[in-house]
Design a protein that fits this description.
The structure is a homodimer. Chain A is an alpha+beta fold. The first copy, chain A, folds into 3 domains: 57 residues, no CATH class; 117 residues, Aminopeptidase, CATH 3.40.630; 111 residues, Alpha-Beta Plaits (2-Layer Sandwich). The first copy, chain A, contains 9 helices and 12 strands. The longest helix of chain A is centred in the middle third of the chain and has 22 residues. Chain A is elongated. In chain A, 48% of the residues are buried. At the A-B interface, strand 4, helix 5, strand 5, strand 6 and strand 7 of A face strand 4, helix 5, strand 5, strand 6 and strand 7 of B.
């Protein structure tokens, strides 16, 4: 609705399919498809960790839609989110004006060794896929320097029995860095580590890329508006980088985008103990509302 | 049946419950209970990896028996088995006269860290249970020296998701050594490693003992009979240590016991590729028969 001199714009609240990406890769899939970064057919053909097909699952649960991706092109995209990290709490800030977002590299490694008896196979003759996997996990820490974060969140052994040397291991590697050069260097270092471990342990290692997103810089004018709106309400605010991936990074491909963070207690998320105080959530929502109002007021179109 | 001057003895072929021990610990459970090394009630109360109770499962599948453990006390116990290792094949021997058997130590470690977001949690603030587990796996190799074998066959992360730092990890450790002093030293070294990793990674680690058997020396007279029987048939024979645990080590508590090994191709076992040639199996069975006949012939009792 028109209000004073400002131009009215339709407000759209969107819930994108598969932001988390745990079952179907890549993560932030819905917003990526909407922004044209991934074809619809390719996304719908994605195979889940349980062997299911995304398109079939969306039809099954009634979430499949007929609207063509990219139909709605926003004038601006704002995303309010809990920080999921310790920075705001540590600095006593109520609002984070997110100016950029880390690049993300997800890979799945499959290691093929030779299953054998734990009691009868001499240590020197083993091709232990589990031991090779552990060497990659510990070796990754040496790569996680100067701002790179490295995580092995999933690791499974086969046959996973107490008295059997592992014949195979599957693990995931999550690398993140706000700097594209460092992220690419970490990926290259991982490839070197994988080759070294494969040669020394007598195992074969195959690498599959699950997701790869370059770091994103949000719209500077929007970030400044968030900062100003928080200051106007007397809320301590700081500019920051998002460690997590968010749909905003995909929408940034097609419109000015930015994010507002509110504090996460103890920096904990992806854990049942995740908590943000109600008043912190309200503060974030008020800043969001203020920024949206400011954008409408700034519109100088004929209405 | 009496034959010539020898005394007749009943021949018993036994199949002991739960020799492998993958679902219910400890392994070699049936023979251990029969030999008096573990109480029947305690064994039947064993909880499986799937949460089931052994006694209930035995009743369910019709394998529960009313015969008191130890009812049958053999005059001698002989076990024919594939080697499951590479020694006989490497040495061109057809028969192994097994004179001793490694001690076995099985432990389960549970590591409690803190689940958190892989992108937002600084490397220095992590309490990554999966990383701690990998450090134990790689550190174990340094303990596996001078005859000790060390294996982590099972390792599971929680929640096991690509973008979540592991809040918990559960792994098993299988330590074996033919020398009790070295085995105990390896256990002590593992405890030191666990304490070091717990302190440095900020995680809590609890250790549960699943099985512990000292090395066993088989009956020297029986071992000599096996050696002689093989030689009499012109079969290349060598004395050796069993790397695997076997029911014979439990029966050795209550009667003269020994084992006959036949070669495993490529030393592979606990793997679908496990293979022993039919003629090698026949050779082992013939040596077994010869030794049993010899024992009966040696009996000087009144019959």
């Amino acid at each position: 609705m028109p209000r004073g001199s400002c131009r009215a714009r339709p407000l759209v609240v969107a819930a994108f399919t598969n932001e988390e990406g745990v079952r179907f890769a890549p993560d932030m899939m819905g917003s990526l498809v909407h922004a044209g970064g991934l074809g619809l057919a390719e996304a719908l053909a994605s195979i889940g960790t349980d062997g299911t097909v995304l398109g079939e699952e969306l039809r099954r649960i009634g979430y499949a839609s007929s609207m063509a991706p990219g139909t709605i092109r926003p004038a601006a995209y704002l995303e309010l989110h809990v920080e999921q990290g310790p920075v705001l709490e540590r600095d006593g800030a109520a609002i984070g004006a997110v100016e950029d977002l880390q690049g993300i590299s997800w890979q799945r490694l499959r290691i093929e060794g030779r299953a054998n008896h734990a009691g009868t196979t001499p240590m020197a003759l083993r091709r232990d896929a589990g031991h090779a996997a552990a060497r990659i996990v510990t070796g990754l820490r040496a790569l996680a320097t100067g701002g790179t974060a490295a995580t092995v969140g999933s690791l499974r052994l086969e046959p996973d029995a107490i008295n059997v040397i592992s014949g195979a291991a599957v693990l995931t590697v999550d690398l993140r860095d706000p700097d594209e050069g460092r992220l690419a260097a970490a990926e290259a270092a991982l490839a070197g580590l994988v080759a070294e471990v494969a040669a020394e342990e007598g195992v074969a290692i195959t690498t599959e890329r699950l997701a790869r997103f370059q770091p994103v810089r949000f719209d500077p004018a929007l970030v400044a508006r968030i900062e100003q709106a928080a200051a106007k309400r007397g809320l301590p605010v700081r500019r920051m980088t998002s460690g997590a991936g968010h749909d905003a990074q995909m929408l940034a491909r097609i419109c000015p985008s930015a994010m507002i963070f509110v504090p996460s207690r103890d920096g904990i998320s992806h854990n049942p103990a995740e908590y943000t105080a109600p008043e912190a959530l309200v503060a974030g929502a008020e800043v969001l509302l203020d920024v949206v109002r400011g954008l409408l007021d700034a519109d100088q179109g004929p209405g």
